[in-house]
Design a protein that fits this description.
The chain is 18% helix and 33% strand. The protein has 6 helices and 20 strands. A 6-stranded mixed β-sheet has the order 9-10-11-15-12-20. Strands 3, 4, 6, 7 and 8 form a 5-stranded antiparallel β-sheet that branches.
Length: 320
């Protein structure tokens, strides 16, 4: 009888596919969910309600996202970037795994990540459940390890996380997460990296702002394997803050909702797809943050300039 009980426990553990260790961090209207990876999981489903979740509530109505396994890892950062352009981001930041706090530890390979932007007026208390999908399908079990409740505030400004900075603290690499429900999952992620050249002495002082947009081949050209460029190296001026677009995901000004992979991490639109301007939305989010009291720097909105080449040139006409 004793051996029989041990055998049942071992079998149940072997086939269990219920995530454990679900934790939350809520900041500036965004909820960061992390949990332990399930070996063999293909994807994860995230459910969100304004009432306590039971098994019967795991319906498509309450499902807010389905994300691929390995969600704490930004593969274009560590793989595409390294394979084609020598890995300047990996050289500077040292990991393809996300950080969710300023200069915080990188998430572990055994962790998963989902970020939700709260858009309900006034916020409130919301309940989450995370399930795993394996080759056998979704494990719809509910337990203390994969459910929790979060007191959330409405997100009025998306606040980025600072990942790294230059030795003189004037060149900065940030990441911000766009609202998942307004994003295109085929773009492989809703995380947006950008560079900002802004000196410590400029904090609290209204400064002119310059957007520098790149074409597809640029890929964080302001970084190298030894460090992040200073504000002066990136843009020779003490009169302008300076921002450039991210190293991969949507430098496109106009992106199809149905795409197929192209060369070097690019995408090709499928005939009949609808084109959305995701990049413009992200750039507005950067400006909104720099105009808010959540940013240490302040934009003089009467003096904003923009330029770029190739697709960055297209953006220079489209965005204004």
């Amino acid at each position: 009888m004793y051996f029989y009980l041990i055998l049942i426990f071992a079998v149940s553990q072997l086939f269990a596919a219920t995530p454990e260790g679900l934790n939350s961090l809520h900041r500036d209207g965004q909820t960061f969910l992390t949990w332990h990876d399930i070996p063999g999981a293909i994807s994860y489903r995230i459910y969100r309600t304004d009432f306590s979740i039971t098994n019967s509530d795991l319906t498509s109505t309450n499902r807010v996202a389905t994300i691929d396994s390995g969600s704490s890892y930004y593969k274009y950062w560590a793989e595409k970037n390294a394979a084609y352009f020598g890995g300047p981001l990996a050289g500077v930041l040292g990991s393809g795994h996300f950080r969710i706090e300023n200069f915080g530890d990188t998430l572990l390979a055994s962790q998963e990540l989902f970020v939700w932007t709260t858009q309900e007026t006034g916020g409130g208390t919301f309940h989450y459940a995370v399930t795993a999908v394996t080759g056998a399908g979704e494990d719809a079990s509910i337990g203390p390890g994969n459910t929790l409740s979060v007191a959330e505030e409405e997100c009025t400004v998306i606040t980025p996380v600072e990942l790294a900075c230059s030795s003189d603290s004037s060149g900065h690499v940030f990441i911000m997460w766009m609202p998942y429900d307004k994003w295109n999952p085929q773009i492989n992620g809703y995380a947006y990296h950008f560079y900002l050249g802004a000196k410590p002495a400029w904090k609290g002082v209204a400064k002119p702002f310059h957007f520098e947009l790149h074409g597809r081949g640029a890929y964080y050209i302001w970084t190298n394997s030894s460090g992040i460029r200073t504000a002066d190296q990136a843009y020779a001026s003490d009169r302008l803050m300076y921002c450039v677009d991210d190293p991969h995901n949507t430098w496109f000004f106009g992106f199809a909702d149905n795409v197929t992979p192209g060369n070097y991490g690019s995408f090709n639109a499928v005939d009949g797809s609808t084109v959305y301007n995701f990049t413009e939305y992200r750039m507005w989010c950067v400006l909104r943050w720099l105009r808010s009291d959540r940013s240490p720097w302040v934009v003089d909105t009467n003096r904003v300039t923009i330029k770029g080449g190739s697709m960055g040139g297209t953006g220079s006409y489209t965005f204004p």
